Fold each of these.
Amino acid sequence: MRAPCTRASSPSSLPWFGVTAIGGSPAAALDATLQDSAEAGLPSIAVTPNQGKLLWLLARVQGARAILELGTLGGYSTIWLARALPVGGRLVTLEAEAEYAEIARANIARAGLAQTVELHVGPALQTLPQLLAEGAGPFDLIFIDADKKNNPGYFEWSLKLSRPGTLIIVDNVVRDSAILDPDADDPTLGNEGIRGVRHFFEKLAAEQGVDATAIQTVGSKGYDGFALAIVSG
Ligand code: SAH
Ligand code: DHB
Ligand code: MG
């Protein structure tokens, strides 16, 4: 059963969660990305503005020069993360759906990031071995936000594409506390997604080579969370 407190109030009714950028980060290209994604019929499952800003901050704190993202959708989180890169930095993002990738490409180009972002279309579990074989890594920051059932596999590949000090961030690890219940049927992730996230947490806990925690994020899409793991060796 889910904790009753998660139902107490609608986070979107709290005005400050609508704030896109507290200090810096021009919002126009980000707002246009969400608008065009919605008009193209993409699902409204991008990170919220405050989560995007947290990704940006974490990438800045990390001093990331090479970022890998799994799950591009319309490119909203991609743009937040790519904006944190220094000149000469690069971001590789993986998306299974060709139609989503097409929208993302246009959004990324409008944000002035076409030269910074490399988008690969195809199932991430097929692209990840190719990236490793090409010597694309190691990445300084990896954001895992694709299909949740494959999170355990994505975590394994992320470790292969890491160096000591790499920051791995995983989205959607709280799901309004549904993650506590192995039988939960999340409205969009399904039970398969919930089990994927839980299995990922088991692997994370068992993995000697990372130090990790999870934080709750709350925003216009309710209560969810990021897992944060730093590769130790
Ligand atoms: N990171 C985005 C949201 C991603 S939503 C943002 O916050 O803006 C999850 C995305 O993962 C969807 O676009 C979905 O098509 C993609 N996806 C699903 N299965 C995938 C797979 N096997 N490989 C790569 N991407 C996948
Ligand atoms: C949903 C949200 C996400 O951030 C995601 O990556 C996938 C699905 C959702 O709310 O359904
Ligand atoms: Mg997500």
Amino acid sequence: MRLSQFFLPTLKETPSEAQIVSHRLMLRAGMVRQLTSGIYSWLPLGYRVLKKIEQIVREEQDAVGCNELLMPTIQPAELWQESGRYDDYGLEMLRITDRHDRQMLFGPTNEEAITDIFRKDVRSYKQLPQLLYHIQWKFRDEIRPRFGVMRGREFLMKDAYSFDIDYESSRHAYNKMFLAYCRTFTRLGVKAIPMVADTGPIGGDLSHEFIILADTGESEVFCDQKWLAKDLSGKGVDLNDRTALENWVQGTLVDYAATEEKHDPANSPISGDDLIATRGIEVGHIFHFGTKYSEPMGATVLGPDGKEVPVMMGSYGIGVSRLVGALIEASHDENGIIWPDAVAPYKVGLINLRTGDDECDAACEDAYAKLSNAGIEVLYDDRDIRAGGKFADMDLIGLPWQIVIGPKGLKNGVVELKNRRTGEKTEVTFEAALNQIS
Ligand code: ATP
Ligand code: MG
Ligand code: MG
Ligand code: MG
């Protein structure tokens, strides 16, 4: 992509409405623009990152055998009256009336909708287990939308749902999702710690929130410092071996980590220097809730003994759009964003130090073609502006690599290769730079 043909409205000044660094940087880097409170448009650069995160989330859901579908954003009120949540959900639910005076709502989550799909077509335990997910926009009329996309009103969520015949199988589904989440966040280049979370009035011990530690997070969290060095990549775990998977999950969870609701300072198993008490961002939440929806909504199957039983369910969310902000909170410096490779909108930024100079232009065109041909995503700053502005914008948008081509270097047959994360700059031939990036 040539910057001269790209829509990248970067800002020099810090927008006054943004209170935290990720919000400031997303506005300054031209990634999003607010349409109205808590509702954002994703501009081309931001949308590329959102799609990359979404794709990694998708691949790891697929890898544990979860089937993707797509449910609508608008739901009928009746379904929520059946589950009993229509009144409980309160003001966070955006309620809509259609032209026939029917009550509708913009889905804040999809337990009711998926249970309805399930009950209409699944009759027997032989059709179980089922694991289904979608990646869809949600609306919650948050009382205090803030921090940009981190607490929006409209936001993109991956939500998955499991259906099983008994507790043991349901727990296996939970463990599969636990593994998928560990793998997802590892691939995204961030540490998200699974913490024991409140299960609300339903009870049970099976709920974990995946939390990225950050001072700007909205949750108060407590965990053993051992988590900081823990490998959560989930490599080599056999997800079809129930016992092995259960052991891996329990082994991972041996070290203490709890959200505020579950942390009791008087009875904490760890204290002193071992205990990290800090804040964090909830980027995922997995939850086993048994028959909470299947019972009132009549989602039953015939068991092996011929008796009808309500299915055991769980739900599993990831805040896809929140992650864009959360990754920036976790990775930036005073000059801008530093993208983890896996989600960077482009891998390399190519800077032409003197647009209009024949030799420079030709060298840049050649480099641009070679990078593109090598399958490397490149953003070429071919704009006719001063070099300082190009450097500042490139640092701001945080691409992992920069290749700078100018008249001086060309005389010596070299370009400058800069690593955005380390700041390290080297003068090398273009071929050597290409080699290192590939
Ligand atoms: P929070 O505690 O931040 O309000 P939640 O517990 O209400 O989140 P869940 O119902 O668990 O959210 O939804 C699953 C995921 O969706 C959350 O873990 C979070 O990453 C994301 N999410 C929830 N609300 C928002 C929001 N207003 N804006 C962006 N992402 C959100
Ligand atoms: Mg909430
Ligand atoms: Mg929460
Ligand atoms: Mg939650």
Amino acid sequence: MISHVDGYLEHIMAVCCDNRSGAVADYIPELTRVDPEGYGLSLCMHDGHIYSRGDAGTKFTIQSVSKPLTYAFALTRLGFAETDDKIGVEPSGEAFNQVSVDDRRRPKNPMINAGAILAASLLLPPVRDIGPGLVDTVFEEVTAFYSACAGRRLSLDVDVWHSEAATGARNRAIAYMLDSFGVIDSDPEAALDLYLRQCSLQVTTDDLAVIGATFANGGANPRTGRQVLAPEVAQRVLSVMTTCGMYDGAGDWVTSVGLPAKSGVGGGILAILPGQLGIGVYSPRLDQHGNSARGIETCRHLSTDLGLHMF
Ligand code: DON
């Protein structure tokens, strides 16, 4: 039987599916292989119940939606003082792939590529010439952390990872630029590799919704009952997502949708109502900021219709 919520989600999707604006990301060749019409929507409530419609079971790569997770893992491992010494918490007002650093040459925040590559580097030992074997070990820990947030084991899209690695000149440049600033203590190639692998983990909108509900719930996964991260880490990550999660579209997003969120060029958006629920949306056509165009419209409707705006 279809519940009121399911019926409402179907209604929203019917309203937004005419939005065919934007284009699928093509700067990573493997990402062009997706169905541009793909559209999924999931909500995970604080009791762990999931409502999902459309292509909610379709796997896509998490891409930049990984950034809050790796930031949370770095905060958990290193603590606030050490992490804050390396990565700022100020919006950059620039595109995700700009080398936006502050006067201490720290990346301005962990939601842009520079900050995310640095966050990945913090998970690696502070030595040069780290081989792929050690990156394998750390990537397994990262995957285990993401999987605990999602409540199921996530896996790598090897083709996307290789495609990103082969065409990742921009990210390689960012890693080496940070290295030249003296802010990466680890090996820049290993940090880049770890970042590209985390971006290539596959998720569904159900996964994003559960990850969101885990953060909404002070770090306790509502489906498994496991405390995956500390409440103060969840609070910090949600704060930074609110101001920096949608890049240079962040101000427009916060005023119109009013929720902490993170987008990825795979077409996913994770949005969170603290204390209440997680939202996962998937639609791969992107706007000029690299955010899912239909996903943004969907979140606007959800926020307005259900009164989710935090302010
Ligand atoms: O760094 C990159 O190019 C990608 N792997 C991730 C970028 C991304 O998802 C930006 N988000 N909208």
